[in-house]
Amino acid sequence: MNARYEGDGSIAGVTDLFEAVMTELTDSFTFNEVTAVQTAGDGSDIFLDVPGSTLVGFTWGSDPATDENNAVQLRFQGRSGSGRRVSFSVFGYVGSTSNYRLTAAEDAHVAAAVALLQAGDGSFCAIDGNIPTWKNYANVKANDHWVKEARNG
Q1: What are phi and psi of 69, to 5 degrees?
Q2: DSSP letter string, 45-96
C-alpha cells in the first residue's frame, strides 16, 4: 500500500486508520502481515524505513493465499474538492465480488471501511494533498501486474 498523508504525526494517523480499516475487513482477506513501513520526503523517490513503526507485525485475514486470490484487490476511491483522485487498494481479497463493485448498502464491512476513511481527515490525501471524499463503494478486480506474475510463474 502507498499512502499520501498530511501534517505532523501523520504516520501515526495513517497507522491507526489502516489498522482500523483492515480490522473491519479482515474476514474478506487472505492472511497478510506488514513487514516494513517506509516514508519519503516531499518530491523524493527515496524511501527510508520508519524506525519503531507499530504497524510492522500487524496482521489481518486468515484464508491461505493462492496465485488466484493474491491478484484480487479491493479498491476504495475518492476525490478531493478540486477533483484529484485518491485510492486505497489491498490485495488478497477473497470475499463476494457482487458484479465487481461492492456498495456500502450491499456489504456492512465496506460501509464501515468507507465510514472510517471518511472520518480519517488528513490520514490519506488526494494527489493534490487535499482531504478527499471517498466513494460509497469498493471495486473488486484482479490486478494486471499480479495476474501477469501468476501466469509467468
Answers
A1: -85, -20
A2: ---EE-TT-TTTT-EE--BPP-HHHHTEEEEEEEE-TTS-EEEEEEE-B-S-
Q: 76 burial class (0-12, 13-18, 19+ CB within 10 angstroms)?
A: buried
C-alpha cell at 121: 481527515
Domain coordinates in residue numbering, the chain: 10-152
Which pLDDT tens digit goes with each residue over 105-153?
999 999 999 999 999 866 888 888 888 999 999 999 988 887 888 788 7
SS3 label, residue 133 = strand
> Residue 109: enclosing H or E segment and its boundaries?
helix 108-119
Instruction: Please name the amino acid found at residue 61.
Output: G
CB atoms within 10 A of CB 94: 19
> Considering the entire predicted model, what is its pTM?
0.86
Cell output for 89? 487498494
If you average pLDDT over every residue of the chain, what do you get? 87
